[in-house]
Amino acid sequence: MAFAPVVWYIALGSHSYIHYWFTYRELCVSIFALLTCLVKMQDGISEKDAIKRTKAEFTYLKRVCKKVTCKQMARIGNVAFIITMLPVAYLSFVNRASGDDYGYGVKTRAAWCISHSFMEVLKAACQTVEEYYYSWQGTWFSVFLFSLQPEVFSEKAYVITAFLMLSFWIGSTILLFRQLLYKELGLNKWSSVLITTLFLTINIQFIPSTKSSIFWYNGTIHYMLPFSMCQILLVCFLHYRKDYKFTYIAGITVIMFLLGGSNYQTALFALIAAAYTIIVNYSGQKDKRIFTLIIPIMMEVFGLIISMKAPGNRVRGGEQFGFSMTKGIKAIEASFIAGIKDIVGYCKEKPLVIVGLLLLFLIMAGAFKKMEEEKNRFFLFVHPLISIIALFCIYCAMQTPAIYADVAVSGGVYNTNYQVFLLTFSGILLIAAKKLADKSRLSYREFNIKLLLPGIFFCFITSAVCRSNMKESTLWVCLTYITSGQASEYKEQMELQTRLLMDENARDVVIPFVNDVQGPLMQMPVTDDPDAWTNVVTAQFYGKNSVKAMSRLKWQELYGNEKN
What we know:
There is one protein chain. Helix content is 74%, strand content 2%. It contains 28 helices and two strands. A two-stranded parallel sheet has the order 1-2. α27 (533-542) links the parallel β1 and β2. The longest helix has 29 residues, at 411-439. The N and C termini lie far apart (64 Å).
């Protein structure tokens, strides 16, 4: 009887999801059935026998907890995580350059084709930075890397994009969580691994845009790489505040200077993180050496000034582009409202993310409880309430650049907002888990039985109810794209397009249309207008006079026999 509503939710998920405002009431049946069961278990037996039965059940649960270790769960989690990444790995071999990739790579590809010298390519990359600095945008570090997109060197090299970005993304997260959880807070090794794996799963599976986070080189370079650099920067901060080695301050300075030439969100994040490190460390240790972090802060500000002063920014942003104190204050105020709206949006549109965070909290609390003795370490969150407010402010601050610019933004902006949300709220959950573990008088086994296991069961039931949200996950989107046949069709179409564009005898190339709806992949198709931007940059990249597209059926009639 208790599981009847759960079966109903699974069998009629759409109905339950659409009419959630009253279908949730079916859970009253489950609650009533379970409570009735508990009462009936005690009927007809003495108080002494009831105590014995309760102790026996408690002993059985303890045995179950002993068999399922954190090490086992971590290993299972790692295997599950790898399996979910297999469709992404498959699509990396289908992935191809498009649009902006061609535009920024014109000079570097020409340099590589002529000289096959990497030094010449770097010179061409600097020329590209100069060109765009005056004509379009000032983010000099991003533009420099844009111009080195993989297809500059080989038409088959774009396959490395997904692997490269995932390596930065996953690697920087592992470094940060290992340093924070295992080395700083002294959590169990396998608890740290389990927390990291769960965090990465939530992060990757429900990232708003797979295009700008995994598959599209320009989007990943401008948003994912700088965010990964920020995570590495946090690791450097954690190291530097303890031993003040020159190696770390040098690395911090280089990273922050380069972030000054990337997107504004991560540049702002780095500045706030550096200021937070100075304040927290000095208030706790009174060591003035921490103020040497002012040097990398100044270097990043210098890089930002170079970026913001670019004449191309006015071309891209319009004549009204510029700094306004009044507009800045209003943007900061609006960022808090936007941040709260985003959280509400995540609760409504990504309920499995909230379930994942709840599960993350339970595992954190269990990990703190498992610590056999209190470690005499400097806890990063000096005052819990102040730290929670600070983390929330950091999250909201990521909204400010887009609000201030007041222009349409790419998917990478939403990706950064989402990633900082997960990172900062994981910090908040870490504080809450530490407090819960400290305040609880239960033993580790009792804690697992009375809190952890019921919590995991609740997360499982909620996940079953909200399973329709899985259709928005990276795994589901990639699998759908593969199993529908779109991936293989796209691969064939792009291989044909590349053969046509690589034909040295053709100067004015006509190619069949490619659909721009390509699931998780980015595609800016060539149009039937030779003067369209995508057509122009594609022609320039491949050294053609012109490029245009026509319907695939018509192209097959006119050119199919001679081109195939």
